[in-house]
Amino acid sequence: MDLLLSAEAAAAAAPELRDRADIPDRFKWNLNDIFASWEAWRQAYDELEIKIGAYAALQGTLAQGAARLLAAMQLSDDIGQLTYRVWYFAGLKYDEDQRDNQINARRQQVQILFAKASQASAWFNPELLAIPLTTVQQWMTDEPGLAVYRFALEDLYRQQEHVLDEKGEHLLSLASRFSSAPNDAYSALSTADVKHPTIKLSSGPEITLTYGQYRAILATNRNQADRAASFEAYHQVFAANINTYASLYNGVLQRDLFHSQSRGYRTTLDAALHGNNIPPAVVENLIESTKAGTEPLRRYHRLRKRVLGVETYHSYDAAIPLVDFDRKYPYEHVQEWLPASVAPLGAEYQAHMRDALASRWIDVYENPGKRSGAYSAPVYGVHPYMLLNYNDTLDAVFTLAHEMGHSMHTILSNAHQPFVYSAYTIFIAEVPSTLSEMFFLDHMLARATDDRERIVLLQHAIDGIVGTFYTQVLFADYELQAHRLVEEGRPVTSDGLSDIYFNLLQAYYGDALDYDELSRITWSRIPHFYSTPYYVYQYATCYASSAQVMKQLTSGSEADRAAAIERYLTLLKSGGSDHPMPLLQRAGVDLSRPETVRAVVDQLDGLVTQLENAIGALAKV
Ligand SMILES: [Zn+2]
Predict the structure, then answer these.
(1) pTM here?
(2) Residues contacting 534, CB < 8 A, separation 6+
(3) Fewest CB atoms within 10 A around its CB: which of 294, 320, 380, 415?
(4) Ligand 1 centroid vs 405 CA: distance in angstroms?
(5) Which residues of the chain have pLDDT under 70?
(6) Ligand 1 ion: Cβ-proximal residues, 5 Å cutoff
């Protein structure tokens, strides 16, 4: 079957790059909702500086009693609220056009003020923690104003478990200067000092293979030999320095071991999870249950091999689209689809979303100097703002759905929580954004009339699950096994690390992949391993949580579904008022149970079946 015929050229041209002044206002965010002018910003900045000084002056007062503690907490809230507006007004203006030096200077001025603020508040934790917890608990009972801060204050005491005495902390702070060295050296070796290889493509041109080029070839070049040559050349760069990468990574592992042992944690994993109070069983369950659920992943890749019509199927064949289809999705069209897609969450939720779309909260199009990528900025006391670089592609639509999920979380959390708990942790943050994308996919699948579009949508969703779930769990497994090497006093060599990685690849992909020797060293080029160990698993837990929520929102009786909606909205309204695990448990998600991970496996299984059907239907035409 020939699936690679191009779709009809019905596609509208992508929006061209315009000067910011030429883009109509309704496609640009309105920052006057934060401050009416730079003069107003300046006044708020000055006010903030005065308040920071006042906070520093409270040092030495806490032990005097409940009223003093309350005063400090309330002033800290005041400062925090003002900080959001002062920071984002300058920060968002800067992102409109980063070439503007005057705005950049104002933005840096706020950063300098932040450094002052952090010095001015450094006294608080040690002074509070010198007061016995029982005393502070009594104060919270006696002084009603303090009650709201109970979770925040008690959590400071919980975190205290692993804080050392003054001498110990001083020593650790001196040692911390070395802690970024392995990652800095990794960046220098893999980016600043790297010599990009050149390769000759079958179509003729010789190109310099940067990471961006490499990714682009894997995602767009339909010639397998070109993809193979790119893979080979790109990984040879790392293979040439593989022992250096292993010793840098050993530096990361030894640092984490030093940190966890000096603070009295049982393991490096315990140390990484303590901040959010996550039990290690969550990560262990995630890894075990995912490994037991790799069949749909393999099925997807076997299907890809068949559709692509290749003799052998390699890791570099996994990103190429199954069909050519470049339909454009103009921004105006998706305005109605997006609120429609979240109908299962209720009319109020939809109304918030319509508001966000209509009230100039979004900076839609690219312009010269604008920051790249996309984000949702939670400007407390105003509303969330979203930055996009919308280019009418399917990716751009899903990015909008994603950022809208974050923004809805911000709206509900800010409306229902006191300031101190309005911010949510990364452990929960990607749940609403992922769920928003899931709803949007369902909506788009339901309205798609073309098999080709259906295939593109399904591949988008499946690749999302592979990238944010399976790959991230594989990474987490690798990090855990590597850290265990040093915890158990075993040597760390490039061969040993490559064995761990290769065994994992085989455990996940089984016979669905033809393995290349160079795949063994993939670990050496993953920046997260060096920069933020034990971090990426959170993408996977968020994904699993959304899959579980989605399952509950869309199955069972009407009453079950209504209860699931309530629970989910409560999660969004809860902000950071508790640790992530209890918050998720109240939403019906228990990450320590295999069923939660199973929800992702089932979801992928269903999507692969739909993809098989869509491909079958297209082949018949
Ligand atoms: Zn996100």
Answers:
(1) 0.91
(2) 268, 269, 272, 273, 476, 479, 483
(3) 415
(4) 8
(5) 1-15, 621
(6) 433
